[in-house]
Amino acid sequence: MALIYEDALAKEISSDRLCGAYLIFGDDTYLKKYYADKISDKAYGGDPFFNLQKFDGNADLQEVYDAVKQYPMMADSKCVTLTDYDFEHSSKSDFDKLCNLLCDTTDGCVFIVRFDSIEFDDKRNAKAKKLISSVEKGGGRAVKLDHRKGAVLVKMLTDGAKKRKCIMSDNVAKHLIETCGEDISTLKNELDKLCSYANGSEITKETVDLVCIKSVESSVYDYVKQIFALDVSGALKQLDNMFFMHIEPMIILYTASATYVDMYRVFTALNAGKKILDVSSDFGYKNKAFVLDRAKIDLKKMNREKLLLSFEALMSADKKLKSFGLEPRTVLEQLTVKLIYIIVKGEAVD
Q1: Which of 50, 84, 97, 155 has its CA 20 to 30 A from that of 182?
Q2: What does the DSSP 8-state code read for residue 171?
């Protein structure tokens, strides 16, 4: 499969040499809609009422088929879009129609198929692979648009701040990403808020902490940070903040547990004579390798026995949260105290 990514797609759109069909998927909803709109804006001519036809996942595939096969009305080109069609549960005849449309579009028509909420696994799903094969066979493009990573996101934020007459350093941009996550639409919204607040001045880490809404992951990391600082009151306060934000207790537990998994991976790797980069590569951390550096620092207060006791406490909390009659806040408050006790004393507490 010869997938293309954002850079190649952007160049193709700017060159005005569009293909007959585009199959767009990936984990970044903002980018998928952004580029699908850019393609459609260039693909149709004349009146959009006639030459820009949009279908959602509930569409009749025969109607989509007819739309693609019809010639443009009073123009040289038209565009047909289909979003979130449930190909996995469609009939064989409808699935075959979709494959044929991707493989053999009509001259003058650009057909865009986009998956936002429908899962599209290009590595393991046989039907997804067949759709990719069909669009490539017809000379179209299979486009995977995942979240922008690392330096690309940082540049987007610093350039965006500059356009808004504000100053943002690379380090502050990285802090914003760690605080709010990698979703582009979220970052753009937060950048707008920051620049409005800064009003032409420099944006600092303190500004980010004051103005921006933290992601669930960032909030839980702050909670774990308080645990490893042995600050019971600070950890319980952060836990209270997360309940105020209506974060699900199981999400708090699972995300906190993930930080202990990070530590255990680093612990076993270092004991085996490997490096942090090996862990990042073997377990697919990619641009989230910074969590491994944080795990390495936290490991200074841990050993194998403390890690195992911590996992036992986390699994016990998991069972309690899944049972009925127990107050989730109480379960997580007790877990907080137990995890700190393990770090300090090296033994479990009931």
Answers
A1: 84
A2: H
Task: Give the integer Cα–Cα distance in Å for 317 and 202.
Answer: 44
**196's tokens:** 């409005």
Q: Which amino acid is at 178?
A: E
Contact 145/5 with Cβ under 8 angstroms? yes
Q: Tell me the per-residue pLDDT of 182-220, one tens digit each, with 9 for 90 and over.
A: 888 889 999 999 999 999 999 999 999 999 988 888 889
Task: Write the DSSP string, 101-158.
Answer: HHHSPPTTEEEEEE-SSS---TTT-HHHHHHHHHHHHTT-EEEE-PPP-HHHHHHHHH
Please state, in angstroms and as integers, the Cα–Cα distance from residue 69 to each residue in 65, 76, 92, following that order. Answer: 6, 14, 20
Q: Per residue in 264-300, pLDDT tens? A: 999 999 999 988 888 888 887 765 667 888 889 999 9
Q: Quick one: pLDDT at residue 157?
A: 95
pLDDT, tens digit (0-9, with 9 covering 90-100), for 328-344: 999 999 999 999 999 99
The C-alpha atoms of residue 127 and residue 136 are separated, in whole angstroms, by 14
CA angle, residues 172, 176, 182, in degrees to nearest 5: 135
Q: Torsion over CA of 100, 8, 82 and 54, rounded to 10 degrees?
A: -120
Report d(CA 23, CA 111) in Å as an integer.
Answer: 9
Q: Which one-letter DSSP state was computed for residue 18?
A: -
Cα distances (angstroms) measured from residue 37 to each of 34, 80, 110, 304: 5, 11, 12, 52
What mean pLDDT value characterizes the chain? 91
Residue 135: pLDDT over 90: yes
CB-based contact 300:335 (threshold 8 Å): no
